[in-house]
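Most newcomers find our protein records easier to grasp once they have seen one. There is nothing in a record beyond a sequence line and a structure line. Getting from the letters to the tokens is the skill we practise here. An example says more than a description, so a record of this kind follows:
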Amino acid sequence: MDDLTKLSGKAWVAVGDMANWERGFENGIWGIVPELEHHWQKIQKYDLVLFYCIAPISRLFGAGIIRSKFKQTTPLWKEEVRENRVIWPYRFEFDVIHWIPLGQWKDLGIDNKNFNLAVLAGLNPVKEFSKAIG
């Protein structure tokens, strides 16, 4: 997406471990558990999404724009395929606007202590949009 003027004015932090982020970037898709459907219902096209790795390091490492959302019953992530069940059915597609290459997250990723964004669940609203773009 070249035109950032289309941003909706809402932002989210998507949270996951490194293995799931690798898979998410292969497909440009992120998913969340049914317990967070209320957040998924609120996301919309052109929302900003910040990418946060929770393990093995804890860093913000990129950003994207939400393209669409959908519910899916087909396993996608390795854990889902291995267990033959869908764990994260509420999914959205995103376009990457910036990201730090995988091997550099620890050194170049951004520590959340400076921003104090919610990172407890798989998808968290950013209450102050200026923090997301600051």
Q: What stands out?
A: The chain has one domain: 7-126. The first strand starts at residue 11 and ends at 16. The chain has a mean pLDDT of 91.
